[in-house]
């Protein structure tokens, strides 16, 4: 049976880990590892943006030691939990978890604005409905307000 490109890259990542004291952190532009770094970044982006990795691929990456970023659904669930706990979609705080959620919210607001302006946006109808269910909706064309708050 033929070996896939992914299988080759998983093997190279395992080799890299062995050669680098168990680390899978590849410094940007590291000589000889640029292709591996690009592939690994694409795997993380694919998981975060669209959950396009199979469960087997996710498990394989995690076994090697790759920490996958939170998926879109994970972040949506965090925002829903925050809203349930605080009654608001505003996320104010100093810890790193809050910063990650604030960055995600900002990206969703930008995508919503593009969507409602009729511009291409990385926002599926399913995700749009999930954001609307939390209270994100357009108040005027081109302006998105979560429950009246920007």
Which key phrases capture this entry?
disordered C terminus, 2 strands, 59% helix, two-stranded antiparallel ribbon, 6 helices, 150 residues, mainly alpha, elongated
Brief account:
It contains 6 helices and 2 strands; from the N terminus they run ααααααββ. By secondary structure, the protein is mostly helical.
Question: Layout of helices and strands, plus pairs?
Answer:
Blueprint: H1 5-19, H2 34-50, H3 55-64, H4 72-86, H5 96-116, H6 125-134, E1 136-140, E2 143-146
Antiparallel strand pairs: 1-2
Number of helices: 6
Mean pLDDT, nearest integer? 80
Structural class: mainly alpha
Shape: elongated
Task: Give the helix proportion (percent range).
Answer: 55-70%
Question: Can you describe this structure?
Answer:
By secondary structure, the chain is mostly helical. 59% of the residues lie in helices and 6% in strands. The protein has six helices and two strands; from the N terminus they run H-H-H-H-H-H-E-E. The chain has helices at 5-19, 34-50, 55-64, 72-86, 96-116, 125-134, and strands spanning 136-140, 143-146. It has a two-stranded antiparallel ribbon. Strand 1 (136-140) and strand 2 form a beta hairpin. The model is unreliable at 140-150 (pLDDT under 50).
């Amino acid at each position: 049976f033929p070996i896939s490109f992914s299988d080759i890259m998983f093997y190279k990542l395992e080799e890299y880990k062995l050669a680098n004291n168990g680390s899978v952190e590849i410094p940007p532009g590291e000589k000889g590892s640029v292709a591996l770094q690009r592939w690994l970044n694409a795997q993380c982006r694919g998981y975060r943006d669209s959950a396009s990795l199979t469960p087997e691929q996710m498990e394989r990456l995690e076994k090697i030691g790759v920490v996958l970023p939170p998926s879109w659904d994970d972040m949506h669930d965090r925002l829903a939990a925050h809203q349930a706990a605080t009654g608001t979609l505003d996320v104010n705080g100093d810890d790193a978890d809050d910063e990650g959620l604030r960055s995600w919210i900002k990206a969703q607001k930008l995508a919503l604005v593009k969507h409602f302006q009729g511009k291409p946006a990385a926002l599926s109808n399913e995700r749009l409905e999930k954001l609307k269910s939390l209270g994100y909706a357009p108040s005027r064309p081109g302006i998105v307000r979560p429950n009246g708050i920007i």
